[in-house]
Structures
1.
Amino acid sequence: QVQLQESGPGLVKPSETLSLSCTVSGASISSTAYYWSWIRQPPGKGLEWVGSIYFTGGSFYNPSLKSRVTISVDTSKNQFSLRLASVTAPDTATYYCASSRGHFGVFDSWGQGTLVPVSS
Amino acid sequence: EIVLTQSPATLSLSPGERATLSCRASQSVSNYLAWYQQKPGQAPSLLIFDASNRAFGIPARFSGSGSGTVFTLTISNLEPEDFAVYYCQQRTDRALTFGGGTRVEIK
């Protein structure tokens, strides 16, 4: 069973870059069996897919965020990361990392989530 | 972008009753639709994938059906732990989208 744990700063200022990491245990980040994703949820609202990465197949982003998002993999730490540039208040959300085994877009394991407020 | 519309927004039922949740897509998603359950303060968890396949460890009282643009999640006999928010999600193209959610609350 894959386990995921998000980490990163608890607060980001407007116009800065939000950076989060997700540490994976129970699977190798370089495995071709998995897709790795970020999903966010503003307080009291629904879920929004941010983007996904496949170790040998590239990355896919939400079109509404594509110009500001980068997802990357760090094999030395068995982590994948999210960078979201030029944040504003609407980017305040709980950010979840998730994995999909074999089926792109089926999120079968989730991290516990981390709330990232955007505030000065 | 494929828009998923869930109804009703809130469903008020008693334990032991049957819950029927709907998800409609703005265009065909074939059978590439999943359902997730989210309890307060927790991450979502996968219930159903590809319209009708239960995820590992999910009880048989949860069932999914549908194809194309109309999908249903049925909980046949509500247990106290089933009161939660449920989201549908499509993976037809590389722009994944979620529905707005249905809250199943205790009547």
2.
Amino acid sequence: AQSVTQLDSQVPVFEEAPVELRCNYSSSVSVYLFWYVQYPNQGLQLLLKYLSGSTLVKGINGFEAEFNKSQTSFHLRKPSVHISDTAEYFCAVSLHDSGGSNYKLTFGKGTLLTVNP
Amino acid sequence: DVKVTQSSRYLVKRTGEKVFLECVQDMDHENMFWYRQDPGLGLRLIYFSYDVKMKEKGDIPEGYSVSREKKERFSLILESASTNQTSMYLCASSLRDFFSYEQYFGPGTRLTVT
């Protein structure tokens, strides 16, 4: 079974600083990888996804993530954060197999990003 | 735009009550999911459905059941609510598409069981 570890439960940063939110996964088969964001009192929305191809994936709101197969990581980055990026961020993985439950997502426990003025 | 709606944003129920949480999606998605979200635990899958009348248990199905009589609607049922089911409940849907896998989420229902 696959699992997802988000290494930091909380990340406080100052506005306009760069940020990296870390995500590692474990799986015996190939995976698809996702980052979701949850703003206060809202549901989750997709930031970006890696299915195949280029390992550097760009998403909405200036975020990007890099898939590193050898390190089984999918870290999320933004070069300069805004107050409005304050939210909880979830990394998720889906198994890349041909059938069965390959549309299920396993989520990490989340990282709360707080951007301070 | 895909829209997933949930019947209530906030719900307060008493221990032992039967509770229905409703979810409706408007994009003809085959897959629908129910998660619960608790601080420090992230999202945990309760049940999912890949077609009408079809369902599979997720990671934490105990104390819950589901119903999917129509493609657009997926209901979560707490047969006898208990205080440890106080949580945020999120519904999601997705296409059954090999290259997709993106799940679209509703706004959530915050359930308090007293």
